[in-house]
Design brief:
The chain is mainly alpha-helical. The protein is built from 13 helices and seven strands. The longest helix is centred in the last third of the chain and has 34 residues. The radius of gyration is 27 Å and the shape is globular.
Length: 397
């Protein structure tokens, strides 16, 4: 090893392992702590975002999703053409801008707060919170159930658009409850599991991109003369991004069916038999699972303005009532808790796998008694050390 002296500090070209073993016994502990914080950052953000949604629901003012919706409407007015290419450019531009914008914002905030994982996790948790909609979904369903149970169908019909896009004017109590149960089932994936899953896999930028795609599907992904072609890309993109979350949510709902007084075997049987019959590759899995788990019969004729769709029957049970809508809320909530646990665990696992491939001292600066150790950029297998105590080894040729 060779020593160079410039009068202020000493550059020792010695192996890292020797430094760790001989000079700073605590360095591995410090690096392990930094690594643990970095690995748990994404998982903590998912849990914090979920808990914020449970406690607060959607932001009442300045909701980012509402702002994105207004921006998307303004862009649509300039870009609309009755063709798929224009719709694809519209969807990709807005979804990409949302994901990239949030990623850059998180990076900027990360620079402002330094490399402290708690600061970055706070920013990511806010993104997750604003993307989730589980608590608001439950409130809307519970209000609908209360109105139907009280016999106030006028109020129930006025409440339904907060849950489903179908025309409520001619719906009776059973059809209102069916619409509510189907919406709760479908949105368990859309508004809960999918944002958590994308956050675990790819971080807050992916959460924002998913929520943007899902919002565009709700805005332009309709089968009507205006959006048949223009909204095609937004609808297909949402189907693609929701596909894994729908399967995860359906599987968790099967396992958790007894929480809502349901049967796992029946939920699994109806999922396998009827899940693919639905025109949506994702909604059908959740609706079939909820139908089997709760012992209901879903599907039928749905009116969307001037357009009428005949949906296949899912399940073999009774028509849903207000109590069944509340049971659907219970199952959705339990699925959300399970999704949070699974996705947080996945984030921990992925973070550990990726961080374990990085060099030990490249993850964060480590200190021992106020003395910092950093890697030499030019010579990655060696360390640049400040002057140490008199026990520094003698220079050798």
């Amino acid at each position: 090893m060779t020593a160079y002296c410039n009068g202020q500090n000493v550059l020792l070209k010695i192996p890292k392992v020797a430094v760790e073993r001989r000079f700073w016994p605590g360095i591995r502990t410090s690096v392990s702590a930094c690594r643990l914080l970095a690995v748990s950052e994404s998982a903590g953000a998912l849990v914090a975002g979920w808990l914020a949604d449970r406690a607060l629901g959607d932001p009442q003012r300045w909701h980012p999703v509402a702002g994105f919706g207004r921006l998307s409407r303004a862009v649509e007015e300039r870009m609309w053409r009755p063709e798929r290419r224009a719709g694809a450019l519209y969807a990709l531009a807005l979804v990409g801008a949302a994901g990239l914008g949030v990623s850059l914002a998180c990076r900027l905030v990360g620079r402002l707060v330094g490399r402290h994982p708690l600061g970055r996790a706070l920013v990511a948790s806010v993104v997750v919170w604003t993307a989730l909609g589980g608590r608001s979904l439950e409130r809307a369903a519970e209000n609908l159930a209360a109105a139907v149970e009280a016999g106030d169908l006028t109020r129930a019909r006025a409440l339904l658009p907060a849950l489903a896009g179908r025309d409520p004017a001619s719906l009776d109590a059973a059809e209102l409850c069916r619409a509510g149960v189907e919406s709760v089932a479908e949105n368990t994936a859309d508004a809960v599991t999918a944002p958590l899953l994308w956050g675990a896999v790819a971080g807050p930028g992916a959460v924002a991109a998913y929520r943007a795609a899902n919002t565009l599907d709700a805005m332009v992904g309709h089968r009507n003369p205006r959006y048949e072609q223009f909204g095609w890309a937004a609808a297909r993109l949402d189907d693609l991004l929701t596909w894994p979350a729908a399967r995860l949510a359906a599987g968790l709902a099967v396992l958790l069916a007894p929480v809502a007084g349901g049967d796992r075997a029946q939920a699994w049987a109806v999922l396998r038999r009827d899940g693919a019959a639905h025109p949506s590759p994702n909604a059908g899995r959740l609706e079939a699972t909820f139908a089997g788990a709760l012992g209901l019969r879903l599907g039928g004729t749905n009116a969307y303005g001037d357009r009428v769709e005949d949906r296949p029957r899912l399940g073999e049970g009774r028509p849903p009532g207000p109590d069944d809508l509340r049971r659907a809320v219970i199952l959705s909530r339990a699925t959300g808790w399970a999704s949070t646990a699974v996705c947080a665990g996945a984030a921990l696992l992925l973070g550990h796998l990726f961080s374990s491939r990085r060099p030990l001292l490249s993850e964060c600066s480590t200190t021992q008694g106020g003395v910092a150790a950093r890697r030499s950029v030019a010579e990655p297998d060696e360390l640049l050390l400040p002057p140490g105590p008199p026990t520094v080894p003698k220079a050798t040729a």
